[in-house]
Automatic annotation (TrEMBL), chain A:
Organism annotation: Streptomyces bingchenggensis (strain BCW-1)
Entries under PANTHER family matching the protein: FATTY ACID SYNTHASE, NONRIBOSOMAL PEPTIDE SYNTHETASE
A single GO BP: secondary metabolite biosynthetic process
Tree of life domain: Bacteria
Residue span of region Disordered: 496-517
Record's protein name: Putative AMP-binding protein
One GO location term (cellular component): cytoplasm
Domain AMP-dependent synthetase/ligase: start-end pairs: 21-378
Molecular function as annotated in GO: phosphopantetheine binding
Entry-linked InterPro entries: AMP-bd_C_sf (IPR045851), AMP-dep_synth/lig_dom (IPR000873), ANL_N_sf (IPR042099)
Pfam families: AMP-binding
Length: 517, 103
């Protein structure tokens, strides 16, 4: 590999990704592992399907290190293909069925997969996918029928042939939707994935009797890791698809969901659905986790009201190291606005422009060290070298996240925004998040997004509200100094979102360009 | 919003049509509403679907049971009207005003 590689982390806490499943299948063979709309598999059954898929890949001639591109949405076969691919020594590349052909062409060209697996009802159609990717495209249900013939006997835990998979091998490529640049993939080795999953598990403490609602896309690492966290605990992951979000609360009740990872849009849907509930019985949820896009304080308060007994655990991370910090469940009550402390066994620091650590309270770039730091960007050595910086003396890698924030005296991290969201206006350094938080403080504003001043437009606020733009800007003027009050406010029925539930700022920028007020 | 009644409109009340059109993005608000319109393609996202559910329940005084809360129910205006009508029969709620028949 021609990347700037992180030094191999210690093997002690490592193992392989498929070992997570094999351990679960040995420990809780008859516990439900993964459920979708059509049914569920136990850990023993999931391991059986994973083994059969590995055998199927072997029969197709897929070799160790080759990529398998999977675009099937939130079906339980996804989990089997994930574990089966990495057990075979190949690299699993999940992409969202919502990814447009234009984008997919780039991704397929970049990861160069041996084959593609998609659903018969793929929005791009199977012939369309063949054309776009230029690869053999296999239909999911046909693959499953073909696998039956190859199914190894149950409880077979060893690979069929070849060298055993090394914990240093790549297991996953996760494409991140760069808001401006071409999509890039984070290279995730077995060791770093297992370390990160175990470190997160030690903070969140999923239990064997937990049922985890996985409504986030499995192509988003936040959704994907629910499968690993469930396997570490012997818990059940319930997969749902965006088309059926209308039934989310019904799913929570039907399957006794206890843990719900949310982004703001999902939390809003759950709250709106809870508002129409006639049932007096409180839903069984005991824990909400949040990362990807931060819950606002009204949303957190709403979740606590609608789901009494549920704790909220804010977290922070980027795909390049999976997770950076986790706040203990309900830690926000003592440390409002904090996203928690560094994962055990890792370091987080805040650096100045020269790369020197800043003291508590000072804002700078968030930087991360530890065995959870991934291996870099796939086939992008310059970008890797810029973000995954190797110390010339120690060889240790520091991930420069491009995110800004500060630490407090107790090592709790506070996130201020992406580098792109920080700007100077009239000489004052400001973050979009600060203005968005002030806008959300106004009664009647339910969502807000800020675009920094650019070549085409001054500082602009997009708000979801029944108030007039003038009223919103007036109320902001009572909360913020003049330099931080946007020049313009546009009222929208809803903020545009990416498939992962983050505000789609690229779309907002397009709106600025095309629809002057 | 008032729809032109001359087209291939569905066999539903005007207020149903208005409620559905009201949650669609501006570029998809074309009356009359095609009964077979793919609502997801027309821009009915998850949040808008929930909003539509809540508005329909309020307007018609019905509760959609859990079993009906799926993508299929909200796939097209025709599918949604079918489920809504079934709930009205089940709930036997007195209608608020005369149904207006479509062309």
């Amino acid at each position: 590999m021609d990347m700037t590689a992180a030094p191999s982390p210690p093997r002690a806490a490592s193992g392989t990704v498929h070992a997570l499943l094999e351990t679960a299948a040995a420990t809780w063979p008859n516990a439900w592992a993964v459920r979708d709309r059509t049914g569920a598999w136990t850990y023993r059954q999931l391991a059986g399907h994973a083994g059969a898929f590995a055998a199927w890949l072997d029969e197709r001639g897929v070799r160790r290190g080759e990529r398998v591109l999977v675009r099937v949405g939130s079906r339980r076969e996804f989990a089997a293909m994930l574990f089966g691919t990495v057990r075979h020594g190949a690299v699993f590349v999940p992409v969202n069925p919502a990814m447009r052909p234009f984008h997919l062409t780039t991704v397929a060209g970049d990861c160069d997969p041996a084959l593609v697996i998609a659903r018969a009802d793929d929005p791009a159609t199977l012939p369309g996918l063949r054309e776009v990717t230029g690869r053999p495209v296999h239909e999911l249900d046909a693959v499953w029928r073909g696998m039956e013939a190859l199914r190894p006997p149950p409880d077979t835990a060893t690979g069929r042939e070849g060298a055993p998979v090394s914990p240093d091998d790549l297991a996953l490529l996760i494409y991140t939707s760069g808001s401006t640049a071409a999509p890039k993939a984070v290279m995730c080795p077995h060791t770093a994935i297992c370390f990160a999953a175990r470190a997160i598990a030690s903070r969140l403490r999923y239990r064997a009797d937990d049922v985890v609602l996985t409504a986030l896309p499995l192509t988003f690492d936040y959704g994907l890791y629910q499968i690993f966290l469930a396997a570490l605990a012997g818990a059940e992951a319930v997969l749902t698809e965006p088309d059926h979000h209308i039934g989310l609360l019904a799913t929570v009740r039907e399957h006794g969901v206890t843990v719900v990872p949310v982004v703001p849009s999902l939390a809003e849907i759950l709250l709106r659905l809870a508002g129409r509930e006639r049932s007096a019985a409180a839903p069984p949820v005991r824990l909400f986790t949040n990362t990807g896009a931060a819950l606002t304080s009204p949303l957190i308060a709403g979740l606590r009201r609608a789901f009494p007994g549920a704790a909220v655990a804010p977290m922070f991370g980027i795909t390049e190291c999976k997770r950076i910090t986790v706040l203990e469940p309900d830690g926000d009550l003592a440390k409002p606005g904090s996203v928690g402390t560094a994962l055990p066994g890792t370091d987080v620091a805040v650096l100045d422009d020269a790369g020197q650590p800043l003291p508590a309270g000072r804002t700078g770039q968030i930087a991360v060290r530890g065995p959870h730091v991934m291996r870099g960007y796939w086939r992008a050595p310059e970008l890797t070298a810029a973000r995954f910086r190797t110390d010339p003396l120690t060889g240790e890698v520091t991930l420069h996240t491009g995110d800004f924030g500060h630490l407090d005296e107790d090592g709790h991290l506070y996130f201020h925004g992406r580098r792109d969201d920080l700007f100077k206006r009239r000489g004052v350094l400001t973050g979009a998040l600060e203005i968005e938080a002030a806008a959300l403080d106004i009664d009647g504003v339910t969502a807000a997004a800020v675009l920094p001043p650019g070549p085409d437009a001054d500082l602009t606020l997009f708000a979801v509200t029944e108030l007039t733009p003038e009223r919103v800007l007036g109320s902001l003027g009572e909360r913020l100094e003049g330099s931080k009050v946007p020049a313009d406010c546009r009222v929208l029925p809803a903020l545009p979102l990416t498939p992962n539930g983050k505000t789609d700022k690229q779309r907002l920028r397009q709106m600025l360009g095309t629809s002057p007020r | 919003m008032h729809s032109d009644r001359s087209g291939r409109s569905g066999p539903w009340e005007q207020r149903f049509e208005d409620l559905v059109l009201g949650v669609l993005p501006q570029h998809s608000r074309h009356a009359p509403l095609d009964p077979a319109l793919d609502l997801k393609t027309a821009g009915l996202d998850s949040m808008a679907t929930v909003e539509l559910l809540v508005r329909l329940e309020e307007a018609y005084g019905v509760d959609f049971p859990d079993a009906t809360l799926s993508g299929e129910t909200f796939a097209t205006p025709a599918a949604l009207w079918r489920v809504l009508t079934a709930q009205r029969a089940d709930d036997a709620v007195t209608s608020e005003g005369e149904p207006t028949c479509a062309s």
